[in-house]
Amino acid sequence: MIGDKGSALSTDGAMGTVDRVVQVQVKRPTAAKTTAGGTPRAKVDAAQVQRTRLQGYRRRKTTNAVMLAFAVLCAMIALLPLFAIAIYVAVQGVSSLNLDFFTHAQYQVDTSGFGVPLGIGNTILGTLLLVVVACVIGLPIGLLSGIYLAEFGRGRFANIVRFVADVMAGLPSIVAGLVGYAVVVAAMGGNFSALAGGFALGLLMFPVVTRATEEVLRLVPTSLREGGLALGIPRWRVIASIVVPTAASGIVTSMLLGVARVTGETAPLIFTSFSNSYWNANPLHAVGALPYTIYYYATNEPDPTYHKMAFAGALILVGVVVLLNLIARLIFRQRVQGRT
Question: What distance in Å separates the CA atoms of residue 269 and residue 197, rounded to the nearest whole number?
Answer without folding.
Answer: 6
